[in-house]
User: Which sequence fits this backbone?
């Protein structure tokens, strides 16, 4: 079993939809949680970074962490075609090595 | 400013050959990471350099893989006697080396072993 599980998709939605992306994890020592966005043939770029349980909002993006359930989510409001990319969750214990999910491919159609 | 750069962007090699992949981190970043991204596998940690400390090599999949970082800046990942299962995108990232700071990724080197 992988330490971090993420549905690979693809997830197809129409423009303007609310998107929900999720990861589950098994290591209760994970404390820091990140979401990266990766466009085709590019390196990942950091979207959201959270430490504690709860919600963190940044523009159209909301990251949610539930440590008791070992479950994290990324919500995208008013999705745009430019949001079409692969979204990777990542986490670590406080030391530098990141453990990534496999990534979910999102397609937003105009 | 300049981001993390990697070269070559693409590399095709024959099985059994050695390859070297290069990473130029962001200037001033003391931490440097190598990850491998295979189809359907997500990013897999390979090795981590922090300043002058001994590198964390815990993610290297076999002794055919090695990496060095010269002068605390440029890093080279070497794969000896390449195998077809080594085909993947090799990503380098760098950071300031502070606790849980952001890792900035390069565009990757796409390695194909034929």
Assistant:
């Amino acid at each position: 079993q992988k330490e971090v599980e993420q549905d690979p998709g693809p997830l197809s939605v129409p423009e303007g939809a609310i998107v929900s992306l999720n990861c589950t994890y098994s290591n209760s020592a994970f404390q820091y949680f990140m979401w990266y966005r990766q466009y085709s043939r590019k390196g990942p770029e950091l979207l959201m970074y959270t430490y504690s349980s709860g919600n963190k909002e940044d523009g159209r993006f909301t990251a949610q962490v539930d440590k008791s359930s070992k479950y994290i989510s990324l919500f995208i409001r008013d999705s745009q075609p430019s949001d079409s990319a692969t979204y990777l969750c990542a986490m670590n214990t406080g030391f530098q090595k990141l453990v990534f999910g496999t990534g979910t491919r999102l397609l937003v159609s105009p | 400013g300049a981001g993390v750069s990697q070269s070559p962007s693409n590399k095709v090699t024959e099985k059994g050959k050695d390859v070297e992949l290069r990473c130029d981190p962001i200037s001033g970043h003391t931490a440097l990471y190598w990850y491998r991204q295979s189809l359907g596998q997500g990013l897999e940690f390979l090795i981590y350099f922090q300043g002058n400390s001994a590198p964390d090599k815990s993610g290297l999949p076999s002794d055919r893989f090695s990496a060095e970082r010269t002068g605390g800046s440029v890093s080279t990942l070497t794969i000896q006697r390449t195998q077809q299962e080594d085909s993947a995108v090799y990503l380098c990232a760098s950071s300031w080396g502070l606790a849980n700071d952001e890792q900035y990724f390069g565009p990757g080197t796409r390695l194909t072993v034929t």
